[in-house]
Design a protein that fits this description.
The complex is a heterodimer of chains A (352) and B (400).
Chain A lengths: L1 E5 H14 L6 E5 L10 E4 L2 H4 L8 H11 L4 H4 L5 E6 L4 H15 L4 E7 L6 H17 L2 E6 L10 H24 L8 H8 L4 E10 L3 H10 L13 E8 L5 H15 L4 E8 L1 H4 L2 E9 L6 H11 L18 E2 L2 E2 L4 H4 L7
Parallel strand pairs in A: 1-2, 1-4, 2-3, 4-5, 5-6, 6-7, 8-9
Antiparallel strand pairs in A: 7-10, 8-10, 11-12
Helix pairs in contact in A: 1-5, 1-7, 3-5, 5-6, 9-10
Chain B lengths: L2 E9 L3 E10 L5 E9 L3 E2 L2 E2 L2 H21 L3 E2 L3 E6 L5 E10 L7 H11 L9 E13 L2 E4 L9 E12 H13 L3 E7 H9 L2 H6 L1 E6 L4 E7 L2 E8 L3 H12 L3 H10 L13 E4 L9 E4 H25 L10 E4 L8 H9 L3 E3 L18 H14 L11 E2 L1
Classes of the chains: A alpha/beta (352), B alpha+beta (400).
């Protein structure tokens, strides 16, 4: 597995995670800003010729073009990689633009990809929010699975912006670190990379949260923290698969695993595919329990099945209608009557 | 000191706009009065009911008159330039060729080839010429020449783009305007008018696409090397988004239009997922309804993506897609759609800006000046071409 930090913030988060593993994690930092090379990890300067190492200045298109120019530099780093985990921060230029190009390269090489992307704080303003929104859909399409984590949800109220940002980054890094540990130091119930690869190959957009608790009722408290976690709020969507990781010291009890597993299944979908993994690491987790939960909606299911479902779920039944254009001269394009609603002609699901 | 005064009328699918601009000699043209009301009798940029269209025209004239009266004056608009849109507008690549008299191209040769070009008529008697755009010169086999004077050769050719419209559509507008006691002057293409109002010279030189997003149609104009290289319109516009929303959520057109203006986004985002939009009842006493925000955006996104695909195909046919080094400039009411700039950026892969009229004053107080780019361009065209002649005799004037 390879972790790729993209953009300045993404590289900082990736670097912090790598620190927790004392160098035992393969960590690649990619940025258009040359100063990011000072962080620990293998560094690839993106678009050096075009941007001269000064960053993309928040321009997503410039970042994409810069990465196109230097994407081949990533190839040696991708040799033998079975799963890539991308950590990035959206709202600027490189995080969004470069991530898309890197995902395209991973897809060409048939490497499943997991993206953890933060989206800006609300107070950072509309422009950064808009930039983030502009690439989220494309990242969803290009990645095997993607987690978008609003920074507002990763921090508690704070007067200090730096403190708020640090706290959010720390929360995210902690969560990804726990996920990584599930794969690197498996316990009695294993989730190996191939199993994960299989799950990810069908996954789409995901939700993600990590919590920690200690004390005699630590499992119940961890469960309670998960069930009330805003990041896991599933709204009206159906969860198709749940990945649950429980990390603790040698004192992890079977009843604790049962409490967490049953509570999570009951809350998020008893019929969903459920994958459980544990880690027993006394040195790291002595006296406490950590839980990581990922919910998948499987938006990338089989095309024919999707199409059948789509046709059934459109609201307007019967023949396609031209509505207000009924008596107007038709606009035809490649044999289609463009006056008929696009969503009907294309059988697009509205999930009403 | 003298004044020139011009008026321009846009009889659009969604709204009818009449604007009056004045210019004191040597000063910047300024819009002094503007009226915009919802259109009736127009669908997909063509008049479907002359009587209703007449009412729309009378409506904007009345609005201008009321505004003048409120300010203590009066105005009587006798004529206006007509802004035309719709898929019946097209552009043909033509050329004018003459023999060079004395082995090198002279000023007289250039005048002759230009004059000859402006005599070219669009194909068939059913078309009416809107404009002849001069592009580049060729001397013998050498093309891409912008200034051919003193270049040696035997044959001088001028490439032009001839923009024309369906004659009957223009006649319908004249009939409706006549009935409203308004004389129509030159018909002008909305998209190229908008382009002239919002583009800077360096953008035209570097390569730029102007998209005029109207209600019934979408106009496009591509500039490269400083001149217009392609233009036209497709018969799909913002009204199609409204129609799609109306059908998807079983709403009246008015409710669907409101849903589009206030809530719809061209981009579907995960952030929309759990949000619902409340729609007030159209009839008092009925319950309000709510629709999923994500579904609204899915419907909108599908239509806008399709419009972009149609435009993209038009550009690819002429290998223009990679020449847009100055990006895309969007104008028209459709440019107000949330996140449309982001979707365009994503689909075409270049920068996008909203086109605010640059060379005319008086539109800053409007909520969304880009909506009036076409009519601003028509007024600029009138000013540029009729600057020497005061229109006081035909436009009876503003008396304050």
């Amino acid at each position: 597995m390879l972790m790729i930090g993209v953009g300045t913030s993404g590289c900082r988060i990736a670097s912090r995670i790598a620190d927790d593993f004392d160098g035992s994690i393969r960590n690649l930092l990619c940025d258009t800003d040359a100063t990011t090379g000072q962080l620990d990890g293998d560094f690839v300067l993106l678009g050096g010729n075009r941007l001269s190492g000064r960053g993309s200045g928040g321009d997503i298109v410039a970042a994409r073009m810069a990465v196109e120019e230097s994407i081949a530099a990533l190839d040696p780093e991708l040799e033998g990689v079975r799963i890539a985990v991308i950590v990035t921060s959206l709202g600027g230029g490189t995080g969004g633009g470069a991530t898309l190009e890197i995902l395209k390269r991973l897809s060409q090489r048939n490497i499943p990809s997991i993206v953890f992307a933060t989206t800006p704080f609300a107070f950072e303003g509309d422009d950064r929010q808009r930039k983030a929104r502009s690439v989220m859909g494309m990242i969803e399409d290009a990645a095997s699975t993607s987690f978008f984590l609003p920074l507002d949800r990763l921090t508690v109220a704070s007067d200090n912006m730096k403190q708020a940002f640090d706290q959010a980054v720390s929360t995210l890094a902690q969560g990804i670190t726990l996920f990584w540990r599930l794969l690197k130091t498996p316990g009695y119930i294993r989730l190996d990379a191939e199993r994960l690869r299989h799950v990810l190959s069908r996954a789409g957009r995901g939700r993600f949260a990590a919590v920690e608790a200690s004390g005699p009722d630590r499992a119940a408290r961890a469960l309670d923290a998960l069930l009330t976690n805003e990041s896991l709020s599933s709204g009206t969507t159906t969860i198709r698969a749940i990945l649950c990781g429980v990390l603790a010291g040698d004192d992890l009890r079977l009843t604790e695993i049962s409490t967490l597993a049953n509570g999570i299944r009951k809350a998020f979908g008893e019929t969903a595919q459920f994958e459980l993994a544990t880690v027993n690491d006394e040195a790291t987790f002595s006296g406490r329990i950590s839980a990581v939960v990922m919910l998948f909606e499987f938006s990338k299911v089989d095309e024919s099945a999707t199409k059948a479902r789509k046709i059934q779920s459109v609201l307007s039944p019967g023949a396609k209608s031209r509505g207000r254009f009924q008596n107007s001269e038709s606009t035809l394009w490649h044999g289609e009557n463009m006056d008929e609603p696009t969503y009907l002609r294309k059988s697009i699901s509205l999930d009403l | 000191m003298s004044y020139n005064i011009y008026a321009a009328l846009e009889l659009g699918t969604t709204r009818t706009v009449l604007a009056v601009a004045e210019c004191e000699t040597g000063k910047k043209l300024t819009v002094t009065s503007l009226a915009s009301i919802p259109s009736v009798g127009v669908r997909k940029s063509q008049i479907t009911d002359i009587e209703q269209a007449k009412q729309s025209i009378r409506g904007v004239i009345g609005e201008i008159e009321r505004k003048a009266k409120k300010e203590g004056g009066s105005i009587d608009i006798a004529n206006a330039f007509l802004v035309v849109n719709g898929q019946h507008v097209s552009a043909d690549q033509l050329s004018s060729t003459i023999a060079v008299n004395n082995k090198t191209v002279s000023d007289e040769d250039i005048e002759n080839v230009v004059a000859n070009a402006h005599q070219l008529t669009p194909g068939g008697g059913e078309r009416v010429g809107l404009d002849i755009i001069e592009q580049d010169f060729c001397v013998d086999q050498r093309g891409g020449i912008l200034s051919p004077k003193n270049i040696a050769g035997h044959v001088l050719k001028l490439n032009v783009l001839s923009i024309s419209a369906d004659k009957n559509r223009i006649e319908d507008a004249r009939t409706a305007a006549d009935a409203a006691h308004l004389e129509l002057r030159d018909p002008l293409f909305a998209c190229t008018c908008a382009a002239e109002a919002v583009l800077q010279d360096h953008e035209k030189k570097n390569g730029v696409l102007v998209l005029d997003l109207g209600g019934g149609s979408t106009g496009y104009a591509v500039y490269s090397d400083g001149y217009l290289v392609a233009t036209g319109a497709i018969g799909v516009g913002g009204d199609h988004i409204t129609n799609d929303l109306a059908q998807a959520f079983q709403l009246s057109n008015a409710r669907a239009e409101m849903l589009k203006r206030e809530h719809a986004s061209a981009v579907v985002s995960s952030l929309d997922e759990d949000d619902r939009i409340t729609i007030d009842p159209s009839t008092p006493g009925m319950d309000s309804r709510s629709v999923p925000c994500r579904a609204v955006n899915i419907v909108t996104n599908a239509r806008v993506k399709e419009i972009i695909a149609m435009i993209r195909e038009k550009l690819e046919e002429q290998d223009l897609i990679n020449r847009l080094h100055s990006g895309i400039v969007i104008t028209g009411g459709g440019a107000k759609l949330k996140e449309i700039d982001l979707l365009l950026q994503r689909e075409i892969g270049t920068t996008v800006r909203i086109g605010k009229p640059l060379y005319i004053d008086g539109l800053d107080q409007e909520e969304f000046p880009a909506e009036f780019a076409a009519i601003a361009g028509a007024l600029l065209y009138a000013h540029k071409n009729y600057e020497e002649r005061s229109l006081f005799d035909t436009l009876k004037g503003i008396f304050r």
